[in-house]
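Hi W.,

Here's what went into the run:
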Amino acid sequence: MKPAPISRRTALKGLGVTLALPWLEAMRPLAATAATSGGSPLRMAVLYMPNGVRPDAWTPSGAGSGFELSRLLQPLAPYKDDLLVLTQLWNRATDTGDGHYVKTGGFLTGTTITRTTGSDLRSGAVSMDQVVAQRIGHLTPLPSLELGLEPPATGVDTNVGYTQLYGAHIAWSTPTTPLTKELNPKAVFDRLFRSNSPDRAAQAAKDQSVIDVVLDDAKRLQARLGRDDRQKLDEYFESVRAVEKRIEWDLNRQHETNRSDPRAERAIADLGARIDAYSDPARVSERKGDHTEHVRLMLDLTALAFWTDSTRVSTFMFGNAVSSRNFSFLDGVSGGHHQISHHQNNADKLAEYERINLWHLQQYAYLLGKLQGYCEGERSLLDNCMVLFGAGMRDGNAHNPHNLPIVLAGKAGGSLATGRHLVYDKDTPLSNLYVGMLNRMGVPTDRFSDSTRELEGLGDPAFSGKQA
Amino acid sequence: MRNHLAHFIFLALPVVGLAEPALDFGKDVRPLIEKHCFGCHGAEKGKGGVRLHEFTDTKSLFRDPKLWEKVIESMRDEAMPPDDKPQPPADERARVVDWIEHALDNPADDFVPKDPGRPFLHRLSKREYNNTVRDLLGVTSKPADDFPPDAGGGGGFDNNSATLFIPPVLVEKYLASATRMLAEAKPELIFTARPGDQISNGDAARKAIEEFAARAFRRPLESGEADRFVQLYTQAESRGDPWEKAVKSALRAVLVSPSFLFRMEVPHSSEAHLVSDFEMASRLSYFLWSSMPDAELLRLAAGKKLHDPAVLDAQVQRMLRDPRARDFAENFAGQWLRVHELETSAQPDAKRFPEYNDELRAAMVSEPVEFFHALLRDNGSLLHVLDSDFTYVNETLARHYGIEGVSGRDFRRVALNDRNRGGVLTMGAVLTITSYPRRTSPVLRGKWVLEEILGTPPPPPPPLIQSLPSSDRVRDGLTFRQQLEKHREDPNCSGCHQRLDPLGFGLENFDAIGRWRTTIADQPVDATGQMVSGEKFNGAAELKQLLLKRKDLYVRNVTEKMFAYALNRGLESFDMPLVKQTVKKLAENDYRVGLLVSEVVKSYPFQYRRGGTPLVSQN
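Here's what came out:
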């Protein structure tokens, strides 16, 4: 049964100093009950890491709740009770094609992307995050956020016959439409938080009338185009309609209400100041190479977007497939990510590879810390989240989609029994995990891609899978 | 598309070229295929939908060249016939595969269907948007710089129609940008009519809106097309907005409308047909300027002159001399040569190369653009890209290269006395993006030459490659080059690396940021090399002479790139005869770049589009 709506005053009454609650589901009269638990909405983030992991430093020892974190998972120690480390999952459809693009473009779709230099771009399916966004996206100002750090290369990898575009996208809104990532923290911040100026309602009304006109224009054109041309115009339609929905939010002013909590306001202002400092053209050279800060701003944006219920779905790419980012800013590392990932079991290279992996886990831990620091009712925001961290291959030296490095953090409103290392049968579909996530996010699902069932034991504290 | 591997191997052969094998498909090739393939891929089974028995003569291969490319690939990889089936002898396999490949690459004129290629509605790329609002509104700020990045594909350019998507965030940006651009616009460009004694507020508004929309849509409006925009003006006026503000609210919708944001081409037949003159004006202007057509192009379009070859030649000449052609140089050469990687992925180690600062990087990015722009302006030879006795530098870059007598930030042409420098191979940008953070990579440099210059990329390395150290220190008494040569002794590696590495060795006198050097880690530079053909060279100057002998490969590659860029799509097998004809014309005309551009704009796919099947016929 749906709880009776409560006023904001009631909600704030009795909040302790550490409790700030920018948004309670029950405050929204028309709130959907899907994807909620205990009154708060669930949120889902995916963090994608390119180039795989050092395989011998990844897997924890022991299974079930009595496991020991591996060397690479050490940064997650403070959140050990909030984790599920999942061993022996694989992405069958990506065990073909090339070493990287197939593993990236198909990471969240569980499908084999079409080998093409561009004219026949096709992931084969809507990605898991977008399946969720398409179901519950109407409940928030933005259906989803797609964030990243590296622009897509415009080239074609002639070695393997794939447009490099595939390596820059994990989110697909249709089987043929990858969702462009936002790379600039300032643009993300402005999009999320700076649009509620005083005359926002007036501006929204104007935007709406412009949209009416251009949709009319598009309809007129659509009738005259050939089938091939229509695909792009359809994309335009979809996107204009998505913006229309956002404008509706603005017009109903719900969007502003959910961040009018003073603590949310303060958090927004603080992050805005950090982003402005980061983006200040006068300080460009100072920030150059401060890659970690760039990452953290993106993760802060994710956390704050979740907390203010600006969106419930986000994906983040640490790098594009084959990323050659120079990690020499880390002690003991000299060289590019992809280059080092081809370690050839050379001890020095492996050590460098491990340091790069470790840095990624540290950033993941940073996000978990942020989410845990935000409170929502009796729980932390992290308790109402699922944050997936993973790569499309295990060992970067072998481009192997077996036994992928996968961690899921957050309790999903109590529906995940965390604090365990679960060891599955060899080659258990990663899609089984996606089924479990979809079910929790309000998309009741029997099957996703090559799934065979919902991944076993996610919510059962007694389950530990096979003994490691 | 032709199979790159074949050309890669071809490069290994003496430069004389490959004579046409004297085989006949029906007589010599089909029987072998019948013997080994028809069991599964014949009339009875047709496994995987592949029925090779349907192909009876050479011409028939062109009914489905892609299928035959797959046949080549799977036979060459020995994926087919499957392991449990009888295998053809190796020489027979090679002979058939080579023959099919040669046949696909060299069709007789009547073999290939005329096909302008699959059309995708083309959303203005970021660059095209910036330039278009500049020319439409007179604004100099670049609003699209804040848009999310464009991806790419096809020929490897960001103007590839199929991969220009329109995510919701972009529509938000369009709305915001339209407001901002109209605030910055030059009034005389948007208020082409104003209320006065002779003309009412409403009539002036309609006139201004119609004239603006026609420019923005790059074609005359259809009757009644402006009505919806005018209504926005009327609404705003009735809200009490002042006249200018009310007109702007209509113009804002024009700037978010699909007719502005897309290069709209409306099919007017179900068969392939010439595009309209106005569509042609946009094809020309976005090809050569990355922007909207100017008044002259629109005037010629109105006079239905833009399919006249003489007019097209004259327009190409005019447009290449226009300053806007710099965008062509930047976009085409910049992406082709991948110099933008300097701004994204190339990261020379700051401790090792403190000289590599923003100023130097910017100068490196500019050099190939200035160089290519000059070729366009002066109708220079395409061969200068391989080697030239001049380049374009400013003071920063001149100092970097050790060239004296250049001061200031502006780029200028300088003569190169040392012929080791000259051509794109020895530009700082190229030498830097093909290096690792702390050392040069002869392998990456060789790969870059094969891929970007000769268009013959090597096959990918086998999964277990042996890695090399990240610096060029002497290890175990071996210089870096000696370590690399040792690596090549591995038979798994030598096949490709004896083609790749020498090209890079020839450039070893240039360090990881493109400076001249004579020692590496205190050892003298060894810039000698030997091509697989046996030709030997020492240093960049001699290497470039050997590459010039392979100019046919390079010219074919640059021709393909140019077509792909102009057509906003990757090339297909049906485009190959056109590429071949164009290459032949270039060889007869001193490889002039202007001729290449002219041939492209007069070509069938540039002037035609596939027919469409509209939902509603327009009559």
